[in-house]
Amino acid sequence: MSALDANQINGSTISRKVVKDKLGRSYGTGRRKNSVARVWVSQGTGKVSVNGVEFEKYFVRDTHRRIVLQPFDVTKTLGNFDILCTVSGGGHTGQSGAVRHGLSRALTNFDPMFYDVLHASGFMTRDPRVVERKKYGKHKARKSTQFSKR
Q1: pLDDT, tens digit (0-9, with 9 covering 90-100), for 51-68
Q2: Is CATH 3.30.450.40 what the domain over 22-120 is classified as, yes or no?
Q3: Cβ atoms of residues 94 and 35 within 8 Å
Q4: What is the pTM of this model?
């Protein structure tokens, strides 16, 4: 089954192309909460760099590291790609989710055959949950003042 056959929706064909720069890298932008990640993927040995720092030193918690590497587990390509990414905004949980989203999009640009597996796992969809803004007259976003009878 070709990439075009696998991506037919309602009779219309969605064509995905390989998108690489002159250095052989593919790019993907990932977002979660207030975090934004710019991710470049290239063929390599599995080296991961986040904001110029080694991957294990930037994401200290094991859960954050696992979240970032989930697209490789699903596509069975762990250790085949080098990752260079810059992340800004939010906390470590939001940043790890943003890197996962950007990595999934970059892998899809590198090889369009990964799209179906990554989409089925939910990695291609942006997590839309963000912190609700504070409204005037309220203590927080929804918390009201204490009710007084008199």
Answers
A1: 999 999 999 999 999 999
A2: no
A3: yes
A4: 0.82
